[in-house]
Design brief:
The chain is of the alpha/beta class and 587 residues long. The chain is built from seven helices and 46 strands. The strands form three sheets. The chain has a ten-stranded parallel barrel with strand order 20-22-25-29-32-35-33-30-26-23. A hairpin with a 6-residue loop joins strand 13 and strand 14.
């Protein structure tokens, strides 16, 4: 047994202990071991550690056991600069285990934990073979591993890590990492190298889990872990990173949860990152934020999720294939995105909300694919200053023009110009997808928006274009309605031919049994049918004595010729519109 001076500050230096040492008493203000060697086990069992322990440049040939201990003291005043932790290993070597545990009975219904008033600090090139932290608790500081090496494993389970949570900084974890049934504030892995598999399962954190600048050589798995945020920043994940969201409402669940918000930037995924519900039902998240950069690589997949606040994508995606599968969102924002790789939305819909939004601003979507998406369900669509012409799609229910860009005043010509540009690019996309009917639909919407733009921009200076656009609308709805085109042609045929005949033969309209005289004559219909043949009658215009030599005035004669020619032009235009409307049925 190591003998301490009871109640006094204790510093032990340059000692070698050849036997197993069990500590049963401990000084009130803590103890410091410097340059000591422990040949056998060092055991702290059922003892109050008071202000704590500081090991500096010590060697442990076997194990360090801390079992069913407490630490109720404040700052360790023995050392000149307090580490902030209850137990500190500074430039130490533990060749076997650092084992910290409470006591649990066989039925696991009652536990007497080891409690550190502050926490555990491992720093400055400390080497430990195995770190095990079971049925224990840190209160104010947490656990920090800084610039150290763990050779075989880190195993944390059934514990509370409060304060700052678990932080692993600039360290080399050569063995596997396991954390199960941990509650507390947060986990942070920063500039560290993990050689073996990495698993976090069934944990609950008040804040988040953060991966910054680390290297992970094997699979990283985060299952049923509830936290506020999951941040993945500039990490190098060389295998598969799996995040599984498990629904707490299922009766077969013993553990459940997921991050409410996911942030991704600058990371590399050798296989892929997948965030998905573990069941057929969707899991509820609040946010997904992706900031793409040139450094980001690998596949990123989000699947079977409800996103209740926002899905945001921005930046330059050079070499990352990003997929959203079976996703329902309240708000989707694609902002300043240049997509040079692949972006896929499959089974995308809105969460029923009056404020649901699909927004694209200042972006080039490049090779983006939409499969089985329901854009018409979003209450607000904003598409501004973006390139959509290269997108691919299948089974998409598109939005209507009155859903787009409600943030711009409809009385402003810029509003209609923005609508026109959206449908113009969708038209080219539909043509590239060999979807002729939808290309014509987009063209019709483009022309309607262009007509409104001309009206707002100044109808008088654009009168010629406005007339043509109105005629295209009335004749076949800008190429969409062949039935309307036939009706338009027939009406103009009868009207202009009747006016021509009335002027040629005089203005008298004779009524017999409420029938118009002209339309009841066989000779009228025979001549009218011949009139449908465009060249018919053109050669006889100048030789028509009744029209030019009768008692009718010169003005009436000129009017008759005008109606004759207008009738021919109207028929030709109508035939052209009929043919145009049939374009969506041909290759």
């Amino acid at each position: 047994m190591i003998n301490f001076t009871r109640g006094n500050n204790t510093i032990i230096e340059d000692q070698t202990y050849n036997n197993t040492e069990t500590v049963i008493e401990f000084p009130t203000n803590g103890a410091v071991f410097k340059h000591c060697i422990f040949k056998e086990n060092l055991i702290f069992k059922n003892v109050n550690l008071n202000s704590g322990l500081y090991f500096e440049d010590c060697s442990f040939e076997k194990n360090v056991f801390i079992s069913n201990c407490k630490s109720e003291g404040g700052q360790n005043i023995v050392i000149q600069r307090d580490s902030g932790a209850t137990i500190t290993f500074d430039k130490c070597t533990i060749k076997n285990q650092l084992f910290i545990s409470g006591v649990v009975n066989d039925a696991q219904t009652h536990c007497s934990p080891t409690v550190f008033q502050r926490g555990l600090l491992i720093k400055d090139n400390t080497e430990i073979n195995e770190l095990i932290f079971n049925y224990s608790e840190t209160k104010n500081v947490g656990i920090t591993i800084n610039k150290s090496i763990i050779k075989q494993k880190i195993d944390l389970n059934h514990s509370q890590i409060n304060g700052a949570g678990l932080h692993i900084w600039d360290s080399n974890i050569q063995g596997y990492f396991r954390a199960m049934d941990i509650s507390g504030s947060s986990f942070a892995f920063i500039k560290s190298n993990f050689e073996k598999s990495f698993q976090i399962w069934g944990n609950k954190f008040l804040q988040g889990v953060t991966f910054n600048y680390g290297v992970y050589n094997e699979d990283v798995e985060i299952y049923a872990t509830e936290c506020k945020t999951l941040t993945i920043y500039d990490g190098d994940f060389r295998k598969h990173m799996r995040i599984r969201c498990i629904d707490s409402t299922r009766e077969d669940n013993h553990v459940n949860g997921c991050a409410k918000e996911v942030y991704i930037k600058n990371s590399k995924f050798g296989d892929k990152l997948s965030v998905t519900s573990n069941y057929e039902t969707k899991y509820d998240l609040d946010k997904i934020i992706i900031r793409s950069t040139k450094e980001q690589k690998g596949d990123i997949v989000f699947e079977k999720l409800n996103i209740h606040e926002e899905l945001s994508i921005e930046g330059s995606n050079y070499d990352s294939n990003i997929s959203f599968r079976d996703i329902s969102c309240k708000k989707i924002k694609i902002d300043n995105l240049t997509n040079l790789a692949t972006l896929v939305f499959w089974k995308l819909s809105d969460i029923e909300d009056n404020n649901s939004l699909f927004e694209i601003k200042g972006s080039d979507l490049g090779n983006t694919t939409f499969l089985n998406c329901r854009f018409k369900d979003f209450k607000n669509i904003i598409i501004e200053d973006s390139i959509l012409s290269q997108i691919k799609y299948s089974r998409v229910e598109w939005f209507k023009s009155n859903q787009i860009n409600k943030n711009i005043n409809r009385k402003n010509s810029e509003y209609w110009n923005s609508i026109r540009e959206v449908f113009r690019q969708l038209k080219y996309s539909a043509e590239n997808n060999m979807n002729r009917p939808e290309a014509l639909y987009f063209k019709a919407s483009e022309m309607k928006a262009y007509n409104n733009y001309l009206l707002k921009d100044g109808w008088f200076k654009n009168i010629g274009d406005i007339i043509i656009l109105k005629l295209n609308l009335w004749s076949n709805t800008h190429g969409l309605n062949w039935g309307k085109a036939i009706a338009f042609t027939l009406i103009l045929w009868i009207v202009f031919f009747s006016l021509y005949v009335m002027i040629r033969d005089g203005y008298s309209f004779q009524f017999y049994d409420n029938n118009i005289f002209l339309l009841s004559q066989k000779t009228f219909w025979k001549e009218a049918i011949s009139f449908l043949w465009l060249p018919e009658g053109l050669e006889s215009l100048t030789g028509n004595d009744r029209l030019f030599t009768s008692d009718l005035s010169w003005k009436m004669s000129t009017l008759g010729v005008s109606f004759f020619l207008l009738g021919k032009i109207a028929i030709a235009y109508g035939i052209f519109q009929i043919i145009s409307a049939f374009r969506k049925y041909v290759k």
